[in-house]
Amino acid sequence: MSFPYVHELETRTLLSEYQGKKDARTLKSWRDEGGYQRVRKAIDMSPETITDVVKESGLRGRGGAGFPTGLKWSFMPKEDGKPHYLCCNADESEPGAFKDREIIRWTPHLLIEGCLIGARAIGAEHVYIYVRGEFFEDTQHLNKAVVEAYEAGFVGSNIMGSTWSCDITIHTGAGAYIAGEETGLMNSLMGNRAEPWAKPPFPAQAGAFGMPTTVNNVETLSTVPGIIEHGSEWYRQWGSEKSPGTKLWSCSGHLVRPGNYEIALGVPLRDIIFDVCGGTPSGKPVKAVIPGGSSTAFLSAAELDCATTYEGMQEVGSSLGTASPIVMDEDTDIVRAMRRIAQFYAHESCGQCVQCREGTSWIVRILQKIESGDGRLRDIDTLYDLCEQMTGRTICVLADSVVFPLKSSLDKFRAEYEAKMTSDKVAVG
Amino acid sequence: MSNGEHQNTVTLTVDGVDVTVPEGTRVIEAAERVGVVVPRYCYHPGIPTRPAQCRMCLVEVEGRPKLEPSCTLQAEDGMVVLTASKTAEDARQAVIEFLLVNHPLDCPICDAAGQCMLQDFAYVTNQLESRMDEPKQIMGRDRISDDILYFADRCIICTRCVRFMRDVAHDDALIVAERGHKSYIDTFPGRELNNPFQGNIVDVCPVGALVHEDFVFKARAWDMDATASVCPGCSTGCNVTIDTKENQIVRMKPRHNSKVNSYWMCDYGRKHLVMTNRGVRAEVPMIRDGDKLRATDWETAISWVARQMEIVGHETGSAVISPQMSNEDLSLLWSLLNWLQIEKVEFQVSSGETASLPSVPKLKLRADRAPNAFGLELFGAERVQHLSSETPESPLVVMGDLLQDAPEKFGMGASFFLYLGTRLPEAARNAHAILPVVTFAEMDGTFTNFEGRVQRFHQALNPPGIARPGWMVLSRILAELGTGDVISDVRSAFDHLVKNEQAFEGLSWDGIGLKGAPVRGGHEEVKNLVPS
Questions:
Q1: Sign, Cα dihedral of B157, B161, B162, B163
Q2: CATH number of the B9-84 domain
């Protein structure tokens, strides 16, 4: 557990300052700490100014893709006479990630503040917080916070006595990975199956209920109040030019101290694993790390010195994703780990695109075969080819998500796959 | 387009050929205009929603990093589309291999074999072998409605059926259940698939996943002959294809006609036509010999009828005509009635419940359960609720099958009772002459639908015995009477119609083609004449 443990590398400023302090959940103590003053400030700012400040801060989406938040907001049409919507993506479903849940659990008012400021920036009259159904307790905290905020006049009509009104609705999902994809989320919100739709139309053109919509991650929105309070320069004191700010790291796997840590971007991944999290409990060397949630490429032990920035992770052929490293020590069976990951994606594929629906389950069957010792060398070629065919051919990136770890595990740990094939079988080819 | 407004166009290149299309046209349709059929599964021209989910129609567009689904991609000026580039073909081949991961290779017992888009495109893409040697997933089969079977293993989840029901029939009964590789088509929990147009989901199914229970295991695609025809089930006149095997109708499918039925037809029509196989038919001409009927050959029968008519002379009488008769039948029949100077012509149309398909306003199962009531009205026949059961002592002509429920003594008092029909009900045995004619499925001809559209149908079956088309028989009688030529081909019969009935002026057999054409004055003028 990360509480009350605080490591010196941590920057518990923006997101995690109040984590572990359960009083912060209540509106009273949140206001005592200066809560909702940022919303007041945002109401006095024009939507364009808010967007500009966030643009200048360089904040990038924390849901995995890392798209610049200010830029996303600027895609929303101006004065088109239609209702606009903001969807807060709290469907945190990436295996390995558990940061959004922590924000909702400890600081629901921070998220509400972020939602309001975001809504103000894009001219949204309604915010939908789409929470995954499994977050039962956390949703209760959030519900309570929204009710409190409504009662205090911070949400609803004429917020804080101004002419600006905005509603917040919490919507719980039924637990589907794909409901975390923005168009899947909006489909689910509208009462349809959580199936992503082919873009165009983009959400900013026609999103939820056919209206211009922006979908932002919980962590992204929760970062915004701090930026509005202190300005973009203050935010840029952390991280790099292209990846400014701090990030919540959900560390799991073979670690002495797994948990959530708020760390400035740019710290070497090795330091997070060995210093902050204390290395492996067995003391054995790390074999592999999936750095950004299960949909990112495997890193081998030799690659851990990479900088934890969007560009730094890209350099080693992986991605920052949701910053949720899953650490595997020397005793880990990579084929088994990969099979388990593939099984997850086969289970979670919505089933629309053929490559994804059939490909993911086929990959599982091949990996099961290899795992049980019945594999052939040609299966590795088949897996490589499936990776090729499943990349960039589908509506959303779920198919790509299984390809990243699979392809990298084949590249970096091919020997482990081959070792599963008994020698006589390999000879047959 | 149809309202004559100016439309902006764009010009793009598909596989090296320039094509100009209206703005907003999708690439898959633009490609069709220059003869390039991009393989597709989820796309169906009659279903408005395009989820772009089968990923089969992916094409390469110059200057774009990824392959794009041509079913949703809007054609743009200067766009260079490559449907057959290496990347596009590889992707398509991969889709087939993926589809065949779980699709069983049970083509030898699958009803879609030979008409299967999975088979077709497997050959088109040359994807003839699979690297898949793991066991396939077994899903089983189910009865999705009381007349449609669902073979889940064969299903490729293109969702055409779900979207037809939802977006064309506006009925939410069908859904995709489960997700991913476990997906299958099912009815919504607590709902039944019970829609008068649900049979269309079988037609839109690109594989053999949805099959009509009354067709399953009945015929192979290559054993059937397909004939363009018109559904005689009601006055809408849906364009159909009749599939026959061994001189039996085994299936009827809708044929596209944007002016009438779009891509669809109702279930009543389907079942109604397949039923027409049944029953005992009149196969040879019979003439009265005292109190008996004697079977004879055509020559004898025709000259005997002509002689009887000459004896009766030009005497006012009555006629009862079935609205199942073709326009050509009616044209020659009217010549005969005119010779006899019969002016009282009645017809009766059985009626039934109506049903409509919300997104295709013209396509309805109409109350008039006959294909040519409107044609009869154009000829001046009178629509009656009940046929008169008393016959005065004057000539009586009955054409068509409408004596099933007639009283036993029907027509007994007539001075001359001529019956032309396909069957032989009891009352018909009172006739002086019985001339066996064929059904619409056994000849070529035209019907006039509810709004005055003249539509051709073609011979799908061989007639039983020596039964002949009504118009052919009638022309022979008239020739025997010296008032016309013998007509032995349908074109001449149609010409006779055009010459003798004003409403059909200007039409020609070739001119109306397979999609039909409105009678004189067009649809607008006749709209006021008939209840919709």
A1: positive
A2: 3.10.20.740
Q: Domain range holding A263? A: 246-329
Q: Are residues A258 and A320 in the same domain?
A: yes
B-interface mutation test, from A199, A353, A395, most B Cβ less than 10 A away = A353
The proportion of chain A whose per-residue pLDDT surpasses 90, expressed as a percent, equals: 91
Please, which pLDDT band fits residue B405 given cuts at 50, 70 and 90? confident
Residues of A with CB under 8 A from a CB of B: 176, 178, 193, 195, 197-198, 346-362, 365-366, 368-369, 378, 382, 385, 389, 392-395
Digit-coded pLDDT (tens) for B52-73: 999 999 999 999 999 999 999 9
Q: Are residues A225 and A86 in the same domain?
A: yes
String of DSSP letters for B381-397: PEE-SS------SSEEE
For CATH 3.40.50.740, the residue range(s) in chain B are 286-348+367-521
Q: Which of B295, B294, B298, B283 is nearest to B473 (CA)?
A: B298
Mean pLDDT for B372-393 is: 86
Q: How many domains does chain A have?
A: 3
Domain CATH for A166? 3.40.50.11540
A348: chain B residues, CB-CB within 8 Å: 179-180
Taking contacts as CB-CB distances below 8 angstroms, the residues of chain A near B179 are: 176, 178, 193, 348-351
Partners of residue B98 in chain A, C-beta under 8 Å: 354-355, 357-359, 362, 389
Contact residues for B505 (Cβ-Cβ < 8 A; gap 6+): B498, B520
- Domain assignment of residue A12, yes or no: no
d(CA A397, CA A104): 26
Residue B3 burial (C-beta neighbours within 10 Å; 0-12, 13-18, 19+): exposed
Are A349 and B181 in contact (CB < 8 Å)? Answer: yes
Q: Are strands B286-289 and B433-436 parallel, antiparallel or unpaired?
A: antiparallel
pLDDT of residue B419: 96
Q: Provide mean pLDDT across the span B290-299.
A: 94
Q: Which residues of A touch B91 (CB under 8 A)?
A: 389, 393
Fold observed for domain B286-348+367-521: Rossmann fold (3.40.50)
Q: Using CB atoms, which residue from A176, A358, A369 is nearest to B99?
A: A358
- Taking an 8 Å cut-off on Cβ atoms, the answer to whether A392 and B72 are in contact is no
Residue A193 has pLDDT above 50, yes or no: yes
What does the pLDDT read at residue A6? 84
- Its ipTM equals 0.92
Q: How far is CA B238 from CA A194, B234, B255, in A?
A: 38, 9, 8
CATH 1.20.1050.40 fits B92-223, yes or no: no
| Residue contact B53–A353, C-beta within 8 A | yes
Sheet with strand B239-245: strands edge to edge: B225-230, B239-245, B248-254
Looking only at the bridges linking them, the beta strands covering A84-90 and A213-217 are parallel
Last-in-domain residue among A329, A354, A374? A329
Say whether pLDDT at B4 is over 70: no
Parallel/antiparallel/unpaired status of strands B382-383 and B225-230: unpaired
Q: In the predicted model, is pLDDT for residue B521 greater than 70? A: no
Residues of A whose CB is below 8 A from B99: 354, 358
Residue ranges of alpha helices (H) inside B429-512 are 470-480, 490-500, 509-512
Is 50 exceeded by the pLDDT of residue B532? no
Q: How confident is the model at residue B412 (pLDDT cuts 50, 70, 90)?
A: confident
A/B interface, count of CB pairs below 8 Å: 95
Q: Does the pTM exceed 0.80?
A: yes
Chain B hits for A366, Cβ within 8 Å: 134
**pLDDT at residue A383 is higher than 70:** yes
Nearest CA in chain A to B65: A392
Across residues B201-211, what is the average pLDDT? 97
pLDDT at B2 over 80: no
- Does A345 fall in a domain? yes
Residue in B90, B99, B180 closest to A346 by CB: B180
Please name the amino acid found at residue B169: A
pLDDT tens digits along B305-316: 999 999 988 778
Residue of chain A whose alpha carbon sits nearest to that of B50: A198
